[in-house]
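Example 3.
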Amino acid sequence: MEDMWKKRTERISWRDFRIMEGFWKKRQERNRQVTLPTIYEFFQDTGRMDSMKGLYKPDPTGKDILRDRANGKEEGVFLPGGEIISFQLSELNGEELEMDPNLVPRPHPYWDSDVAKWIEGASYALLHEPNPEVEKQIDKIVEAYEKLQGEDGYVNTYFTFVEPGKRFTNIHEKHELYCAGHMTEAAVAYYESTGKDRYLKLMCRYIDYIDRVIGPEEGKLHAYPGHQELELALVKLYEVTKEPRYLRLAEYFINERGKQPYYFDIECAREGRNPNQPTGKGFGLRDGMPQGPFAHFQAHLPVREQKDAAGHAVRLMYQCCAMADVAARTGDESLKKACRDLWDNVTLEKMYITGGVGAEAHGERFSFSYQLPNEQAYNETCAAIGLAMWAARMLQLENHRKYGDVLERALYNGIISGVSQDGKNFFYANHLECMPAVYEDRVERQTRMFPVRQGDFPVSCCPPNLARFTESITGYAMTQREDTLFLHLYLDMEGKISVRGQQVGLRVQTLYPDEGNVFLRVTPEEKEVRFTLALRIPQWCQGVKITICGEKISTQVAEDGYVYLDRSWKQGEELGLFLEMRPFLLEANPRVRMDCGKVSIQCGPFIYCLEEADNGTELFDICLDADTRLERLYDPELLGGTSCIVAKAKRRVREDWQGCLYRQAGSRYQDCDIRAIPYYLWSNRRIGEMVVWIRYR
Amino acid sequence: MEDMWKKRTERISWRDFRIMEGFWKKRQERNRQVTLPTIYEFFQDTGRMDSMKGLYKPDPTGKDILRDRANGKEEGVFLPGGEIISFQLSELNGEELEMDPNLVPRPHPYWDSDVAKWIEGASYALLHEPNPEVEKQIDKIVEAYEKLQGEDGYVNTYFTFVEPGKRFTNIHEKHELYCAGHMTEAAVAYYESTGKDRYLKLMCRYIDYIDRVIGPEEGKLHAYPGHQELELALVKLYEVTKEPRYLRLAEYFINERGKQPYYFDIECAREGRNPNQPTGKGFGLRDGMPQGPFAHFQAHLPVREQKDAAGHAVRLMYQCCAMADVAARTGDESLKKACRDLWDNVTLEKMYITGGVGAEAHGERFSFSYQLPNEQAYNETCAAIGLAMWAARMLQLENHRKYGDVLERALYNGIISGVSQDGKNFFYANHLECMPAVYEDRVERQTRMFPVRQGDFPVSCCPPNLARFTESITGYAMTQREDTLFLHLYLDMEGKISVRGQQVGLRVQTLYPDEGNVFLRVTPEEKEVRFTLALRIPQWCQGVKITICGEKISTQVAEDGYVYLDRSWKQGEELGLFLEMRPFLLEANPRVRMDCGKVSIQCGPFIYCLEEADNGTELFDICLDADTRLERLYDPELLGGTSCIVAKAKRRVREDWQGCLYRQAGSRYQDCDIRAIPYYLWSNRRIGEMVVWIRYR
């Protein structure tokens, strides 16, 4: 196998393909028309968009601290019954939030990253849909950052205005390098989209500064980010600048992480902090995790020794992205192996059927293997996005259907569930069950972890993350290794690849994932071009047929789950790929005890759910059995047009339960009709029950 | 119906009957030989037994505060996955608990109640098994309290030494009247057992003081206990002293509770405290409950308007005991109705099949209706005891099987599960499921809420509560109304009742609950005595046969679930009661979604569970079906001799799940043998899985 990979596999850039029609067209339109402007507005209203301008002055009355808290992250833990205990809010109870409206809000350590993610998403959109106003908005922000930037290159809003003189004194907790990472990604995106390089140069100066201050050499800090992100951003910067120092710095961060003595202990000792007592709320405890000190930050072990996915889920996903990125470029076998080990651990033991990861709300973190509670799932939207980002990068290391399958599982379920159909309301936590008890009495105590989509989002990682992901979706669809083009995702899109020195046009047309027919037209510059087209055949697919110009050809699915078509492609030839897409029932590994005795419905890449709006209440008492006939329908009226699944099911007769809590088993069951909708569409109608896992008899 | 109740129904006292043989004999022996001495020792080691002697002096170095915390209640909340976050411990992280061993520990607000419950339990034991050493131990404590008692009668350790001058300034949170209640119960028990009245007189002086300071009159505090308990104790004191002021004070507390403006608000305003910010940890928030301010304390509404069981479970149980006690004595119809409403709400919507109540660990409180999670059940042992206490008191208001059934359900399941077979280790929380994930990795973070029985118990409500309950068990077995003797519990016991001026001996012999045969011998002083014997026929009973001197008599179960036998009983006549006791499967109301698709096994009053020690791991994958043949066996070797249930079941074949987390439904099942043990016996062998609710196909 190994010699196949001597030439690097590279991802086809988001720039080279654009969405033309279909499922993603609608989502990108809404993203540009609603989501990105909504986020911009919210960021402006909350002070983020002006924070880097230096307007903030500490308020002597202390009121800005209150506002800080009110805007701030509400740390919380999920209780049985779905209740959230919000520690920070409880401290505010009874204190009136009467603040001087003229006060400029205090910037948060992570605000630079929020702004950056919005810029990144807006930049992707600009390439395909120019928008001078948005460009002006971005330019203004870049100008402000230019003014903010120090002579030495350092640029960070929080440490300039709120804790001046404290830079790099709390890398452990304060998101300083995390912000640098997102700003770098934004600068690269803006440059690649518009060709404007002021932001890019600004960030190069900053990264150069970081490179002078942190590194293996004596006299430098032997540090690594408290929240991984800069590592993967450095690889992007390396790709666009070709500056090898950036790749080396990413590699340094990865290799340094988790070495003993722990840098975070060293930092704490130097700064006189108690490593057991985080300066913020909650999760920074040195010994707070069974896997070891700093496991929350995946800094408990060197990354190559991390076999058990632990700690904060988004942090681990971003770390794995960078590990794969670096391994793909350096060929580091031990790093590749570490990626594969973690991949297997996450996707075979710790991933929801929706592609959600990070089951525990407390610490937004991975739980034990097979500990995948449905109602109390945390499943941060950002973590599912991180899993998709990682999957796409694993495809640079080796081609296998399993990566594309997980990418698609996250994409069509646990990622896009994060935004409402109106584009304005967001889930941070993506539950797999929702019961009235969870919210009926307690909706007033709502926080971002409540299963009601929220229009305000004081912690704003997920909304702009979704926005940038949506705009860059074509960047996840394909990889190329020499003359082989791998098609991992079936999106209705158009673009060009470069094969044997030729620019080759490709047009993919499909209603996927609402149906499984995909049409592909190759347009070489010359009369024909020879290359291998590798088509991923998803594991759910019940049968595959391929035609060229309407003629069926014999197909064989290779061991890696792809069909390889090595031929000369002629202008205008149309390839037809027909993926049989029938609904079926899934069961979980018996070790996932929450799902024992239950099934879920899948059709194509969609996982379906039952919602109260379609099926009434007490969804837990609906049963499917092995003979259940599932039928897929497309309903153009439902939720803006969607596939749904209808079936005959059974539910318990319950008129005779009055005044009885327990009794001898023997209930009768009666037939009922059910309709299941794609999971990502839940919670777009009235508040109500939802289940993904359905009883099975 | 109503005129039946013109004469009061009274409970037969624990003093009048003693356990002779069988199930409870073993438990009482262990209680006297192991549990009571273990508790005494622990209380002595932790300083409780000397706390009232005034040895404590605040340590200027503050180290006693640390010890205070280390010994103190570890407030915590249960997380998905069963993890406990212990707020208080987290504050201690990293601080070494190096304390001067000569320091006298700081008394806790609730220590008086711990000591009192031990005295109460020890006193009950003394009557039937004199023990001069224990009596001396109690006398010493009483002497110390006599020295502690102020001129005015006030007696409380914490407010004498830790917060002198602060008495009755934080009735809301500081357990002051709660301690008075338990001390009163202890004093009554000690007096009734030994005839010694020093403790009783001491407590009368204290209660007289409370009565002078709190009450409806102008100039008095219009207060009521922050933790209900004194109310029911006052009724006991009234019964033994016949002093009507004590009953009136209990009634005042009940009637005053929850009136607006709230006393706790008034107290906070007077003392300059913020009612939204508890002085201790956690649960005192004014607005912390959906039912309204102070619902944690059941002080959100007048008790007659409380239809929905809310707040701290033990508090509500003790409140309901007092409500029923007072209603039985005053004939207050509205109070009776309030008792019945709350009874129905608790037992038809919020009670586990084990008789456990208070599902939420956070606040040790009632959750929503039908919100009965199994793995994360809190079910404090004290709350199940409180439910049994309440059930026995409801039988003073009206006779119905439902009270006896619930009493028995709690008794043989959720109460006695609280102590290990060796008598030394205790559960505070009584889970209905236990999975390795809960403890395997996190056993080091163990707290009292972990599903491992604990031998130390910084918060010591449950162990002495169990001890006193076990010793007073015969007090729950019978009530009498004029010439009708109601037999609610079938215990192997002997004693006397008074009927028509005669002392009538009764001897009950039975192996119940391991079998359903009960023999009863009546021994009138004279040749015969006419009275009605009312025998509870439990709802689980599949058939009943009654014999008198071996002759079967025709029996009819009345609407209230009792068989009434009105006859002249002659010396030496033996009644045989044969309750058919076959194992059967139970299902829960469909609204209890956690139990949908599952059944539990009951036989007699025992609820059975599957434990890993008998059935291997992954118990969630074992299925029963409607045709399952259950067989009851008595195994004299198992766990000291117990009934168990054996059956053929099915479990999923799993050898082929390697490397797969989700796949198309269609697993095969194979036969397996299972053995279920009574729930209360779980966790007496090695640590392992346990389920009460079993999959059902």
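The radius of gyration of chain A is 25 Å. Residues 1-6, 69-99, 438-450 of chain A have pLDDT under 50 and may be disordered.
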